[in-house]
Amino acid sequence: MRMTGGEYIAEFLARLGSDRVFLLTGGACAFMVDAVARHPRLSYTCFHHEQAAAMAADAVWRVSGRVGVTMATSGPGATNLITGIACSYFDSIPSLHLTGQVNQRESSAFQGAAVRQSGFQQTNIVEMVRPITKYAVMVRSARELPAELGKAYTIATSARMGPVLVDVPIDIQQEEVEPSFDPILTPPLPAERSSDVSGAVASTLASAQRPIVLWGAGIGLAGVQEEVSRWLKDKALPFVSSWGGLSYFDHDQPGFLGQIGVYGNRGANFVLQNADAVLVLGSRLDNRQRSGNPRNFAVGAAVHVLDCDIEELRKYRKDHYRTSQIDFRLLPAVLRETEVAPANSEWQAYVAEMKSRYFHPESDASGSRPNRLCPYEVVRRINAVIAEDAIVAVDTGACLCWVFQSFKVKNHNLFTAGGNSPMGYALPAAIGAKLVAPDRQVLAIVGDGGFQLNIQELQTLVRHQLNVAIIVMNNRSYGIIKQFQDSYLGRRHHASQDGYSAPDFRHVAEAYGLGYRRVESPDDLTGSLFSAGPIVIEVVLNEDTRIEPKLEMGRPINDQFPYLGAADYSAANRFVNYPRKEFPEQSPFTKNGGPR
Ligand SMILES: Cc1ncc(C[n+]2csc(CCOP(=O)(O)OP(=O)(O)O)c2C)c(N)n1
C-alpha cells in the first residue's frame, strides 16, 4: 500500500511509540501535521511557541523514556525550536524534530546565485542546528524518508544520546512512497571486555583510604541506576551527585551526602575535596561542579572518570585524570567485578560527621529574618506535601539552586535543562511531562523572571485542563543575577532589578482561567493545592532572598560563602591542605557576612 511522505512519517512515529507530537503548525509542515492528525494511534498537542514544544519534547524522554517529537514550519517555526533542541543536546536527551521546508522547486528557482532566500520562509535549518544535534538532514526525495528517519532515530537513541532533526520539504510530504519499516534495533552491547575497566577501577579504589563516588546523569541515562545503587550500598561507599544525577536514586540512601559544586551542599563538597580517590560515573564535571578553576578540584585525589563519550575523556589530558570509556549498560558488570578495599574507619567517621553537620540545613540568612520567607523552607515544605513520585520540572536562576540544594528525591523525577539552562524551560517541560504521565502529580517551579519567557503556554495548560501546579518563586527580580552583581559589580542591579518588572500573577492566572494561591508562609502550602487542577501558586519572597551556600570566584568548592570560621573550616578540611585565600578588605562579605 503506497502512502504519502507525510503519512509515512506518521506511521513511523506510531510504530516507535512516539505517539504524541508537539507542534505549532504552518504552511510548510501542514501536510505532515494533517497526516499525524488522521493517524488513529497518534495525537498532537498545539503549543503557542515552537521553543516550548521542543522543551516539552525534551521532558518526554526524561519522564517516560520515549522519544519526544516536534513538528514546526520552515523559517521562524524551525528557528524557534533551537533553544529547546540545545537543551536536549547538552543533557544527552534523545528527541526528534521534524521541520517543514519550502517546496524544492521554489528553493531551486535561483540556482547558481548566492541569494539569501528564494522560497518564502526558506531557512537553512539543517546548518543552523548542526552544532546542537547529533544528526540533521534535509530529505530530498520521498524514497529517502524510510532510511533517513530510521537513521535519525537510531542515532538519537544510541551511544551518547541527543536530538536529531529531519527537514522535510512540502513536495516530499505529498509525494508517494513505497513504505518499508525496518525494525529499529537497540544497538548491541559492545564486545569490549568489561573486565579491563573493572581492573582499572579496582586499581583506583584498591589503594584508596578515602574513596568517594560521584554519581552522574550517565547512570540514569543508561538505565542502570538500580544496580549502581545496590553496589554502593553493598560496598558501603559514600557518594555525592551532580545535578543531572540527582533524579535517579532515593536520597535517603545512607551513603548519599548531597550534591557538589558552586551551589553544592557544603558537606558533599568537603568530602569530595578531602578524598584520595574520586570515582566519577557518567558526569562531565562541568565548571558548576569543579568551579572555574579545575586545578582546585579534588587536589589530593586520584580522579578516575568513566564516560561513554571519548571526547569528554580527552578533555582531562591536562588534569592527569584516569579515564575509561565504557558503554554504561556494561557498568553493572564492571562494578560487580570490582574489588573495593574495606572502609577506613577514620574516613567513615569524618563522612558521618560531615553528613550530620552539613546535609540539608540550607537556609539563607536573609530569609530567616522576621516576616520573611526562607526559600529552602518553602522547597522542603513542597517536598513534604507532594506525592513521592511527583514530577518536578525546575527552571533556572536562584529558584533552581534553592530546589536542587534542598529537595530530597524519593521516587520523584526532578529535572531541569542543566546544561543549556534557559529561562522558560520549566512550564513547557511540565506540560510535556503531564501529557505523557497523566496519572502523576506534576509541578513546575519557576522564578518570576523565567515564568515570563514561556507564559503563553498557560493557554496550553488550560486548553487541555492539565493538572499542573506552577510554583512561582517571586522575588520581583532576577535574583541570581543580583547576587552576582552584589559580589562583582558594586551592588549595581542594572537590568536585574532596575529596568525589570513583572505583572500581577493573580491577574495573569485569572486571565487564562487558572486557579491561583498566594503563599506567604510555608503552612499555606497544603497537599491539596497540588492536585486542584491547573494552578499558579505565587510564593512571595523578599527581593534580597539569596542562595546560600554559594561559591565566590577564585575559591575551591570547599570554601563557600557564607564563610565558616577558621576552626570549622579546618575541621572540615582535615585531610587535605587547602590554603585559604585572604578575604578582601572591601568585600561586602567581610563587612556583613564574613567568616563566622
Ligand atoms: C533565555 C535566557 N536568558 C537569560 C538567561 C540568564 N539568566 C539566568 S538566571 C536569570 C534570572 C532568572 O530570574 P528568575 O527567573 O526571576 O529567577 P531568580 O533568580 O530570581 O530565582 C537570567 C537573566 C538565561 N538563563 N536564559
Which descriptors apply to this entry?
disordered C terminus; alpha/beta; 596 residues; binds thiamine diphosphate; six-stranded parallel β-sheet
What does this structure look like?
The protein has 596 residues and is of the alpha/beta class. The chain has 26 helices and 20 strands. The strands form 4 sheets. It has a 6-stranded parallel sheet, sandwiched between helices. Helix 1 (5-16) packs across helix 2, helix 3 runs parallel beside helix 5 (82-90) and helix 10 crosses helix 16 (331-337). It is globular. The N and C termini lie far apart (77 Å).
Q: Could you say which structural class the secondary elements and strand pairing correspond to? A: alpha/beta
User: Which strand order does the major sheet show?
Assistant: 3-2-4-5-7-6
Which residue ranges are poorly predicted, with pLDDT under 50 across at least 5 consecutive positions? 588-596
Number of strands: 20
- What overall form do the CA principal axes indicate? globular
How many DSSP H or I helices? 26
Residue-averaged pLDDT, rounded? 93
Q: Which strand-content bin applies to the residues?
A: 15-25%
Rounded Rg: 25 Å
Could you give a short account of the major beta sheet? 6 strands, parallel
Give every kind of bound small molecule, once each: thiamine diphosphate
Binned, the helix content reads: 25-40%
In whole angstroms, how far apart are the ends? 77 Å
